[in-house]
Amino acid sequence: MADDGSAQSATVWPMPKFYFQVKWDANVMSFQEVSGLDIQSEEIKYRHGDSPQFSVIKMPGMKKFGNITMKKGIFKGDNKFWDWLNQIKMNTIKRVPVTISLLDEAGAPTMVWTLANAWPTKITGTDLKSEGNEVAVESIEIVHEGLTISNG
After folding, report:
1. Closest by alpha carbon to 83, among 112, 119, 136?
2. Count of structural domains within the chain
């Protein structure tokens, strides 16, 4: 009898990345693509003058978080990105938590990325082509002050 896969361990197959959810503050928004979920520990190079080793010591330094880019289709009357960006006034902006969840087949979160104090830094509108046959897509780039990862 053929194996239908129902008895396989959850560690055999990695999660697909196409079923996810994004929450801005308390609002759930639909996106086509989310990228930039990365953290980097910068290196500190040091060498004291009387070191017998003719090379530097590398130590972990401050953490650096990449900007998050999100893409979504343009809908009539939907100006949420532009409204949020227009709130920026001389070092004043509404900072919101953003939660990105990778979902399983039942819709339950399995991996959750939470961004602290996120705000928009760049919005890119769609390109327009008279002979095009694509959906109009806009993107927003947001910055944040920290990224935490947890399992759902």
Report:
1. 119
2. 1
